[in-house]
Amino acid sequence: MTQLQGTSHDVPAILADLTADQVDREFLANAEVHLPRLHDLFAQLYGDRADGFERLASVVDLARRSWAARPADLKALDRARESEPEWFESERMVGGVCYVDRYAGGLSGIRDSIPYFRELGLTYLHLMPLFESPEGNSDGGYAVSSYRRVNPKLGTMADLAELAAELRRAGISLVVDFIFNHTSNEHRWAQKAVAGERGYEDFYLIFPDREMPDAYERTTREIFPDDHPGSFVQLDDGRWIWATFYHFQWDLNYANPAVFEAMAGEMLYLANQGVEILRMDAVAFIWKRLGTTCESLPEAHLLLQAFNAVLRMAAPGLLFKSEAIVHPDEVVSYISPDECQISYNPLQMALTWEALATRDGRLLQQALERRHALPAGTAWVNYVRSHDDIGWTFADEDAAELGIDGSPHRRFLNDFYVGRAEGTFARGVPFQENPRTGDARVTGTTASLAGIEAGDAGGEDRVILAHALALSTGGIPLLYLGDEVAQLNDYGYSDRPEEAGDSRWVHRPFRPAQNYADRRDADTPAGRVFARLTRLLDVRRATPEFSGNELIAFDAHVPSVVAFLRPGDNGFAVLVLANVADSAVEIDALTLSGMAPEALDLVSSAPIWLGVGVTLAAHGTRWLRVR
Ligand code: OTU
């Protein structure tokens, strides 16, 4: 490994400088622990660059200044988090996600919604991208023009900081996106880079002609083929710039340590506004190397670890959440206390829908058995659906063991969920169908995908079943707000020019006011789903077995049944059973004979006798406390 050369910027020298400056004792203590790690990561990432070193010293200085400016209440939070590092693994954790404008009109509307969030029991609120971004299509705000200015239609940065404090007082951690793979083409850095301004030329990946773009594109994947082919777009002056996603989202060049420093500054700025969790967007794409897919390269991990080390020095209470919607082996590779402590669980999400479509629970059961475990000090974020499409990211090699051929199975699932398959209950919409590769993904709200929109008899049960799994496998369950009142697809997006080309807008409806008005009315789907789902939320919160991540797969001997135990104290455990079939099934007494016959149904609060077996209704789920 290359070492950073010179004497003035090695670890002892930087620490000595900090000591001489009589830097804050707490900062120094954190720097002593994390600077050696950061130095090592810098050596690996930037060791062969003349400026690698100075950048390290200036990043440490940035961290020092950021800590000095960190408000006292946030420093108190840092200490609280450090003394209870497992806080986010609690059974009391429940997340919600919404668009600020669509759900509440603006940041003040979000504030007004806090009583409702408390009623649901939320402890984590992910507000979708809310920063300044281009007018019209901005990929739902995922094209950021300034990380320090809130979109003026939503409020101001001061409003955001106040909201964060108010949420914190309500026991809710604010989560925002850290969209650091790319900026919008309107970001100040982007404009300077294109103008060739000194210091900014290498902030992005710009090439004079097609030679390098063609070379890279031989191995990269098309992400938004409806927008542009390949990974590059042409600038007005004829040059080519790297743009993995939309043409107005330009990828940053992290091989340049100035980019690392600049983004570390934006990250620390947000941390000091009171954001408690950063959702690290599109982590797989942040490092590029010719001849590779340019996804999940080893340097992507080193970069995340370096950002993590900076945070540990200057905002130690913060968490990173990984957004890697990729092969399951890669998803877990981002999860560790030193990298991203929490991560979306796209495999469980996709396989829940897979099981509902096939009425066969085996692929999901297999994933719970072999792909659920995580390192200590980390957690899954389990969700039924997000603001993005559903991609079928299961491992072909896992599927093959069950006799399932990956490609045709994905084709079946796509057809099923966009309503093209015989007997489907789903009303989804295709997303980014690529006729060249056969790739496609699916969009739709939970209720529309599960059959409520189509009037299928099992629709409401499937919504509950999918949530019952997300609430019980271990980790932070994340609700897409509005789904708890069974919101349906919003086809109006196709009439709105800036949304029409992106079918993900079908499942990002405005706050469904009528559904919320109906939520106490048991004669409506909204009322029934809300009553059943809030019951599950209440039970989860009171069930310590649901904390942490330990899960023991249980073979129920029925292919349509997903089953597992969540062990607790004193020999008790919760047995979770979910039946994806359209008819009731029996789990026989012999299968359950390893447990004491007396058990408790946690949802109905009724005792149950396992000695006669257990009946699961069509699309039924049960949470049973056993021993
Ligand atoms: C993310 O998703 C966001 O969640 C999307 O809303 C953005 O459009 C995108 O980044 C760009 O900022 O391709 O279809 O893991 O699946 O990062 C969604 C790889 C996406 C991608 C994921 C990306």
From TrEMBL:
Pfam families, sorted: Alpha-amylase
Signal peptide: none
Glycosyl hydrolase family 13 catalytic domain ranges (all copies): 99-524
Record-linked PANTHER family: ALPHA AMYLASE CATALYTIC REGION, ALPHA-AMYLASE FAMILY MEMBER
Protein name per UniProt: Alpha-amylase family protein
Organism classification: Bacteria, Bacillati, Actinomycetota, Actinomycetes, Micrococcales
